[in-house]
Specification:
- By secondary structure, the chain is mainly beta.
- The protein contains 3 helices and 14 strands.
- Strand 6 and strand 7 (about 95-110) form a beta hairpin.
- The longest helix is centred in the middle third of the chain and has 12 residues, at about 160-170.
Amino acid sequence: TLDVRARGSVKQPDLRGTFGLRDGTVKVVALGVDINAITAAGSLDSRAVNLREVSAKAKDGEIKGSGSLALKDDYDVGAFKLSLTAQRWPAIETQRYQLKIAGNIDVQGTLAAPKATGQVTVTEGTLRPDLSFLEQSKVPLKRDDTIVIVKENRASQPTPAQAKEQAGAADNGLFKNASLDLMLSVPRNLWIRHPDLVSELSGNLRATKRPEREIDLTGRIDVVRGWLNFQGRRLQLARGTIQFTGGDKINPALDILAQYKLPEYQVDVVIGGTT
């Protein structure tokens, strides 16, 4: 619906009125999310577009918000701000990843240099990452006593695909100029599920970014419980911490302990360090 009045010159008319939208639908193919029941209502004048309210639904989740968009001469887009509140919102619904979130996000600035802040809680989720290295280890290997690994310290080189992806990210002006300060909380009920690994996670992360910089990730994720199959045996995860210490390169420190108990002895598998 639209009710707008135009007065003044043809080159730069003074537009004033109201607008509305209802029953909108959007399919975000990359995330596997079908958004429906999109509604919006607002007003327009010569200097701003005011979005009084906007809402949408996806499965049993809902998102609501409001915002405004400043208009410069010749109705060029200026600064904007948008505030959103989500409840049980399906952030991603692909075959590998499913996440539902709740929280508040504020986005403001210009379209060329947006700034996003907020607090988001992962209410539930399932991750099915590629863990092919576990599948390759189902057949126990015989130990070769002649091989002793003392130290390996080689810097890994990016593959051509990774180099292309990094170059594309560097050329993305929107990402380059964007700012971010987002708190992410995972109270529990976030699972990694794989035929050879099941684990429940919890933790708190903070993602920040300044213009001209990469994303800086700090915080930690803990393994609440779980197990993994390795070398034909099921090991219980007794301890697990993934610590993010910040820096332009996301390289978390691992501290994972998996145990396999037998009547006569116990095998401890310890994974630690960074890549």
